[in-house]
Amino acid sequence: MKDHRPGLIADIEDGNTRTIYYQEPGLNGKSRVAVEVWDFLHQETIHRATYSEDDARALALRILIKTGGLPA
């Protein structure tokens, strides 16, 4: 079942895990990007982190380059 929380950026399932990216309020009005990874086998969150918008963009760019989505 897809996530419907406000600020949802992406909701990705691969059969073993579900990764949700969403925007949440941060300090001083600067929003943050949160990443949660849910493990279906153990029925628990196995990773949760928040990033500044700039750090989230840099992370996304590194992932795209590493997975072949963008040339290096």
Write the layout of secondary structure elements.
Layout: E1 8-13, E2 17-24, E3 32-39, E4 44-52, H1 53-66
In a nutshell, what does this entry contain?
19% of the residues lie in helices and 43% in strands. The protein is an alpha+beta fold.
Strand content: 35-45%
Strand order of the largest sheet: 1-2-3-4
Helix tally equals: 1
Order of helices and strands: EEEEH
Q: What gross morphology would you assign?
A: globular
Low-confidence stretches: none
Major β-sheet, in short?
A: 4 strands, antiparallel
- What is the average of the pLDDT values? 84
What does this structure look like?
It contains 1 helix and 4 strands. Strand 3 and strand 4 form a beta hairpin. The longest helix has 14 residues.
For the structure shown, list the relevant keywords:
72 residues; alpha+beta; four-stranded antiparallel β-sheet; 43% strand
